[in-house]
Specification:
Blueprint: H1 2-8, H2 12-21, E1 28-29, E2 37-38, H3 47-68, H4 78-81, H5 86-90, H6 99-103, H7 123-128
Antiparallel strand pairs: 1-2
């Protein structure tokens, strides 16, 4: 990721969040090595699923290339706005990429679309400032 980040500004977290638009759980980033993605397919993943993941990564690389060539700015790219929610697609759209490209970047995504409920959050802030939505301990008997 370091060479891509140096050339385009796209960071590992941008790719991880964009993978959510393709229907994949965001992989672990920067662990155990800073500036990396940790992809760990299990033995239960069949070849078709691994091929689908590879296709998504190739498509994301092409999106990065559009930033490198100046077709998109990093800040106005689907990588920086990922993951895209249903609310994003229903709101006013002024981005240089289409709603279709945001939510259904490859044809097979439509077959089983996962819609995240929220946009990107500040991961470091979230890690350092936990928020518990649990019932207060006093209410347990």
């Amino acid at each position: 990721m370091r060479a891509i980040k140096a050339a385009s500004g796209v960071a590992e977290i941008d790719i991880a969040k964009r993978l959510m638009d393709y229907g994949f759980h965001a992989p672990t980033v920067s662990f155990p090595v800073a500036g990396t993605l940790m992809v760990e397919p299990t033995e239960s993943e069949d070849k078709a699923e691994l091929d689908r993941f590879c296709e998504a990564m190739i498509a994301i690389r092409e999106e990065i290339r559009l930033i490198e060539t100046g077709a998109w700015t990093l800040e106005q790219s689907p990588l920086k706005h990922a993951p895209h929610t249903e609310a994003d697609l229903l709101a006013d759209w002024t981005r240089p990429y289409s709603r279709e490209q945001a939510a259904f970047p490859l044809p097979w995504v439509k077959e089983n679309k996962f819609w995240p409920y929220v946009n990107r959050i500040d991961d470091v802030y979230g890690d350092r400032n936990l928020f518990c939505a649990c019932v207060p301990m006093e209410e347990y008997s």
